[in-house]
Amino acid sequence: MRKMETDPCDRPSRNRWRPASRDRTNGTFGEGNAMLVRKIIGKQSSYKKKLLFFLLLISIFPVSLLGLAASHLFSQQIQQEVNRNYRLTLSMLHNRLNDKISAMALSSISLASNDALEKSVAAGLLNDLELDSRMKIYVIDDKGRMFYSRNRDEIGTMLTTADELYYYWLEPANHGDKVMPDHVRYTVSAQKSDYANWTYIVMTPYEDLTKKSNQMKGAIMSIAGVFMLLCMALALFGFREWFRPLRSLLAKTQTTEDAPLPSDNEIEALDEVLQRLIRANKQLHDEIREHMPLAKERIYHFLINGELDESEASRLSDRFEPKLRSPWIYVGVAQVDDYIRFNQTYRGRERSMIHNAMRKAMEELCGHTVPCITFVPEPGQIVVLFAAEQADDRAFGQICHIMKQFRAHAANGFRFTVSAAIGDARREYACISAGYREALHMLSYRLLYGHNVTITTRDIRQRALLQPEESMLRYHKSIVMLLLQGNSEGAAIELEQWLEDVRHYSPSPDNAIGLLSYLLGELEYKLLEAGCHLHEIVSYDLYGRLRMMTVLTEIRAWLLDELFPAVACHLEMVQDPKSKRVVRQVEAYLLERYEEDITLQLTADRFGITPSFLSRIFKDATGRSFSDYLLEIRMNKAMEWLAYTDWPLQHISDRLTYSTVQNFSRIFKKMTGAPPGEYRRQRRENSRTS
């Protein structure tokens, strides 16, 4: 008997009969899975869905791959064992048939002449073999006649070309699968006998050959399925637990002012939160950068006002201004000399631009020579903090030179002059406020030094050693006496000399202001002795005006050009009968302008005298006050118009500058004893009677 060929279950069919077709999918496995992935998660799917899909995929894929590999290996081993048993069965069947045929000695009995006997013998030929009841066995002799079949009706029949077994008989090497009319798939094996050149054909149900391997595959895949379900459950549980703190975080970050976050996608919501944080951080960064100069200005104000202790000042200065880390700090103040003119010239944004230009000019002058910071505590004033490694003459000289250059730059580049003051060096930040107050106090010495100067503590110390001359204490008496005597030129010469002595010998501006106040007091006293009051000459506070002035040149101009001429004019009018002429001029003025809104102040300004002086001389000359005289003129005109015209009361009231008819009627009744309408009626009745 020939050796069995390769397992017919694993070989493709080579016969002409159509084998059973196997299911095949269109496209490759990779293309199908790619389409499936795109269909499941989609391009617009959320990150949460994608993450869940890939978690499930990661949990399923290894288990399924392991299950498939294990089922394939185990089923392959089992199938090999089944195929080996199948080959042994075929071999045993072959040997048994050969033995049976040789033992029967068919040549000695005429089977061909006795079909019934042949069928009976062939039918019981393999009864002693334990074979599967569904297995089909055919024995065909060399003539093509069916010698054996489990179907007795087929025994003894001849094969024809129309029979399906005919080609297996011709070519026993053809093995393959065949689907019989009963719709059962069979594995066909054919083999020639070594004894009589007969052909043995065995058809075994394919299901019987693969039953064990399929059972093993099913068991393994069931176990793999259980593990996959377990992994999926763990993946889902972990997925939910992973998103739980994320949802809690989102709940904490959500505020009522913000737009609602996506509720179905935590990752998109987290992305939205991060985007909001980024936008808020950028906005905050821009606002901080925008308001940083203001914050620094605020810190500088705290420093100069003494509102920070040493630790706070050091911490803030180290953080915002590394330039101030030097051990010594000089405080300098530059201030506009003519602040009133500066305030009127520059307003709003233009003033802010001027301040920035002044700061930039100062910082450029400092350059890398002397580190400094500048800020504007109030309009027209710049504070400069100079940092120095040593508090010596060299550093002080550099700072004085910078201030001198800055004053020259302001005088040439701007339309105003500035004066500067430099205090002593300070070691601690908390002492900056003391240095600032010291510099402000030194700026008051502009009264003695003038404008566009740099004042230092050394200048102040040297000036404090000066002693006023005794002549300074006598000058004010002679000045007042000359003025009261009408010698204005002599008083002016004495004042010039006295102010020059004050400039050179006064130890402080307070001392100079005291001397000037003493001069005004002496003048007021002498005027009272002459029967005049100072408030009749000027209508403002002399001492307040004096304190507003910053330099002696300004005080000199005020005294010589305004106060002294006003006093001389007043004395001349009081002592001269021309005052009566002024009263007559005022009377004529009132008679001419009674229909206008006339006041005592306007009339006094019209004639160049003070209101109090006009009121006094007018009452002395007429015996009536200014207001009573004007009221009398207006009431006389009202009585005239009521008696001789038909003008309505509204017209008369408007011409006499009364605000309402009621007010006019009330005053008219008070002056005449009758209302305007009654007065008109009485005058007309009297006219008709006469």
TrEMBL record:
Residues 1-28 are annotated as: Disordered. InterPro entries: CdaR_GGDEF, Homeodomain-like_sf, HTH_AraC. The lineage of its organism: Bacteria, Bacillati, Bacillota, Bacilli, Bacillales. SUPFAM superfamilies: Homeodomain-like. Gene3D superfamilies: Homeodomain-like. Keywords: DNA-binding, Membrane, Transcription, Transcription regulation, Transmembrane, Transmembrane helix. GO terms for molecular function: DNA-binding transcription factor activity; sequence-specific DNA binding. The keyword Transmembrane applies. It holds the Pfam family HTH_18. The chain crosses the membrane at residues 51-74, 219-239. It comes from the Bacteria. Residues 1-13 have a biased composition (Basic and acidic residues). This is AraC family transcriptional regulator. Residues 584-682 form the HTH araC/xylS-type domain.
